[in-house]
Write a structure and sequence with these properties.
Order of helices and strands: EHEEEEEEEEEHHHEEHEHEEEHEEEHHE
Helix content: 10-25%
Number of strands: 20
Strand content: 25-35%
Distance between the termini: 37 Å
Structural class: alpha+beta
Radius of gyration: 23 Å
Largest sheet: 6 strands, mixed
Shape: globular
Length: 372
């Protein structure tokens, strides 16, 4: 399929002869659609590849105004839609559905991919798991969990410019780039299936790469959560084959000090000690004791992890901290927040013959599988 790059902010009158205009409103949102923020854009930088079959450009009032230089203003929003159902491309990656330029709350413009929820899950599954080699039952468990996560978020974000990002803050989503038969098969086989809590609400399907031996209660990670339905469980050693099961990282004392300043702590350098503080039921470190020249404090581990980044502190399941010269060496287990589905655990359970329903019952013992 031949693709043609079109720079929409310099779309000429000649290009527009191939554009079909319709009265589709910008805020159109049919049932089970979801809006994913792909990127922040500047009007002069927008270039989208479109298929030979043509594309549609509309605004909320159903028309696009073009100035005498052939320029389309992006500030009021645009919808770009393939005319024949083929993918649109952004930065070389294919996307299902349509691409929309929307105003984001901070005044910036965002490129948003709007598509059917099940189509979105094709891309999520292929981005979050190794669909080429991992067993189908693990993929199906991930499909249900990812669907539940998205469905739980939709009502609260219905009027927002976008409903999720495309990175690890939500669910990793690379569009249709990595879709394959296994990803589509796992989503289709569980179509419409979600996790529900004891009150009949949709349970947010949290998941992470590797729990390090035991998952965590959601309330110990996000105290704002009122739900007590996401409980920590042992994974019976299922995730021990993960390359992230045990890890060690070395943080320069100076970098640690800068991270603490970002969190609002007034520590006069140098930091003398970094010690394990409070522990949760799953033996994760809820807080770290920091001792500096002029002050000492207990710092929430998850807050420090957010500032330093997941490559510095892969999880809060820290087992030991040592001081070596001008660095703190941190030893730990697992990767991620530890709540909900352990992906590596699910992989090994599936390899031992567990089906996806049994995997889900294990990691979400107070939830029930429902379809709607």
């Amino acid at each position: 399929m031949k693709e043609s790059p079109i720079s929409l902010n310099r779309l000429t009158a000649i290009c527009l002869s191939a554009v079909c205009l319709s009265a589709q409103p910008l805020n159109r949102c049919v049932a089970q659609e979801i809006r994913i923020l792909l990127d922040y854009i500047k009007s002069k930088d927008l270039a989208i590849e479109v298929p030979d079959g043509g594309f549609t450009v509309t605004r909320d009032e159903g028309r696009v105004e073009i100035d005498e230089e052939g320029t389309i203003g992006l500030e009021d929003g645009l919808i770009i839609r393939s005319n024949d159902g083929r993918h649109l491309y952004w930065h070389g990656k294919p996307y299902r559905g349509r691409l929309e330029i929307r105003k984001i709350g901070d005044g910036r413009l965002g490129l948003v991919n709007t598509l059917e929820l099940e189509d979105y899950l094709y891309g999520v599954l292929a981005s979050e798991m190794d669909t080429k080699t991992w067993p189908l039952e693990a993929l199906k468990a991930q499909a249900v969990v990812s669907r539940s996560y998205a469905r739980h978020a939709l009502p609260a974000t219905a009027n927002a410019p976008y409903q999720m990002g495309a990175d690890t803050k939500h669910q990793v989503y690379f569009g249709a780039a990595f879709e394959d038969k296994a990803a589509r098969g796992a989503v289709d086989a569980t179509r419409g299936e979600i996790l529900k809590d004891a009150r009949g609400g949709i349970l947010p399907g949290y998941f992470h790469s590797c729990c390090g031996g035991r998952t965590e209660d959601a309330r110990f990670v996000w105290s704002r959560l009122a739900s007590k339905d996401s409980l920590g469980v042992s994974d019976f050693g299922s995730c021990q084959t993960s390359p992230h099961y045990a890890w060690v990282t070395s943080i320069p004392v100076e970098d640690l000090g800068k991270a603490l300043v970002k969190l609002g702590y007034d520590f006069e350098p140098p930091i003398k000690s970094l010690l394990i503080g409070r522990l949760t039921k799953s033996m994760r470190v809820a807080s770290l004791k920091v001792i500096a020249q002029n002050n000492r404090a207990e710092v929430p581990t998850d807050k420090l992890r957010q500032v330093l980044g997941p490559n510095w502190i892969r999880s809060t399941k820290i087992t030991r901290i040592a001081r070596q010269d001008k660095r703190f060496v941190i030893y730990g287990k697992g990767w991620g927040h530890g709540v909900g589905l352990c992906q590596w655990g699910a992989k090994n359970m599936a390899e031992r013959g567990w089906d996806y329903e049994k995997i889900l019952r294990h990691y979400f013992p107070k939830a029930r599988l429902a379809k709607n």
